Amino acid sequence: MRIVSLLPSATEILFGIGAGDEVVGVTHECDYPPEALALPKLTSASTPGSTPAEIDRHVRAAVHAGSSLYHLDSALLAQLKPDLIVTQELCAVCAVSYEIVDSAAKHLRSDPRVISLEPISVQDVLANITQLGEITGHSAEARNLVERLESRVAAVGARTAGTAKRPRTLVLEWTDPPMSAGHWIPELVELAGGTPILANPGANSRRLEWSAIAHADPEVVVVAPCGFDLGKTRRAIEELDSVETWRSLAARRAGRVLALDGNAYLSRPGPRLVDAAEIVERWYTDGAEYAG
After folding, report:
1. Which DSSP letter does residue 39 get?
2. CATH topology for 3-144?
3. CB crowding 233-266: b at 16 or more within 10 Å, else e
4. For position 71, what pLDDT does the model report?
5. pLDDT band for position 94 (50/70/90)?
């Protein structure tokens, strides 16, 4: 089978279930595992800016204008002759739109199957792994991966089940403007031993007002902007210090702020979501500022 993955999370899953050798094309954002970096890149994106505020303005303008944030190389897609294309419809700003992919696929002589992954919970992510295993002929490897992940989830849950003090936790998926944690992230916070606040479980993240954040006054804050690595996340936290409300939060004053690589651990609904729960669980105990 010749597989094109238009999702970084799907690329991780495909390699995780032993189908990596069948992946012939990926996105420009597929950077894990390292083997994916050598594969042909089918997408590109306009450079929206460097700061969270600049990126937000660019994204909102593009969405308002009805234009795509990503370009799909249809000519390269045709050359790769895929049998299977893995994409998504869940988020309009996270990947090439399903409509663009579906339209391009209909013009291919290889007549590929197009699969759209739409997880909103950890259980959905595990189901996606099973689904891709069945489609690619790697069912046994997929079951093995799911069992290992379920075992780790159960272990975290067992360690935190009796926790009396569950820190009221704000997860920021974006910092300027501040945006709440959506989809699977509140579930991961609960698993790790915290209580998510101002969250939007099972749905898209939403914009938050600083007044609402101040009123909620979280005990701890996890900053993990969507698509940002750890370096960019730390710079985003430094920029937050220009916001008076942020500086006044008890969590900020106490140094209870975790900079988390959202690009690797929270934004992508793949195997490393379990890593995120384990990292946050350890951080609740260790509590070092910018610890992970």
Report:
1. S
2. Rossmann fold (3.40.50)
3. bebbbeebeebeebeebebbeeebbbbbbbbbbb
4. 85
5. low
What Cα–Cα distance (Å) separates residue 282 from each residue in 81, 163, 259, 269? 45, 13, 13, 21
Residue 255 to residue 289: CA distance in whole angstroms: 5
CA angle 240, 243, 249 (to 5 degrees): 85
Domain coordinates in residue numbering, the chain: 3-144, 166-286
Q: Which tokens belong to 109?
A: 């002589």
User: For tokens 């804050």, what's the residue?
Assistant: 221
Whether 65 has a pLDDT exceeding 50, the answer reads no
> Directed axis angle between helix 273-286 and helix 139-160, to 10°?
20
pLDDT tens for 228-267 read 999 999 999 999 999 999 999 999 999 999 999 999 999 9
Q: Rounded to whole angstroms, how far apart are CA atoms 285 and 258?
A: 12
The label of the residue with tokens 């009805």 reads 66
Q: Which residue has the tokens 């012939």?
A: 24
Topology given in CATH for the domain delimited by 166-286: Rossmann fold (3.40.50)
Residue 104: which of 63, 62, 68, 136 has the closest Cα? 68
Q: Does residue 93 have a pLDDT over 60? A: no
How far from 97 is each of 33, 63, 94, CA to CA, in Å?
24, 11, 9
